[in-house]
Amino acid sequence: MKNLKILLVDDDLFLLAITEKSLEKAGYEIETSKTGEEAVCLISKYPFDVIITDLMLPGDMDGIDILEAAKAADSQTEVILITSYASVDTAVTAMKKGAADYLQKPVNFDELNLRLEKIRCMKSLVKDASDLREAMDITEDKASETIRNLEMMVFDLQNKLSEMEKKLRM
Fold first, then answer.
1. Domain contains 141
2. Three-state SS at 60
3. For 14-53, what is each residue's pLDDT tens digit?
């Protein structure tokens, strides 16, 4: 699978910039957003493999709102929530709503890269399974068509044999 297309959402411009540089260096395609509203707009316009968002954002939207918007736009989009204010309740809520992971600030980039690699591998396996299923469906269709053609040929040959038997008996 190609490298992941990632949307980073954080109102801390310094953290946004260093996370963007770190992930670009690792080969990921990165888009950034400073607000939840801007992130939701981007999510509605472009497909993302992964969204990494701060839980607490200025304005009317937080990381959970972004998670919900991402899952509504494409259930296959993985969301990683990052926060300074981790609580077990918030993590459980995020996971119940479909978050792939939940990390605390300051972000350990090695850990983040490992989590992204895990997501990339999982997405690759899902795609491979889908491709195999499609190939199996095509093979089944071709086999069914071949069987139908052979049955018609056998029927035609049986008719011709019957006609030849009749002619030979005359």
1. no
2. coil
3. 999 999 999 999 999 999 999 999 999 999 999 999 999 9
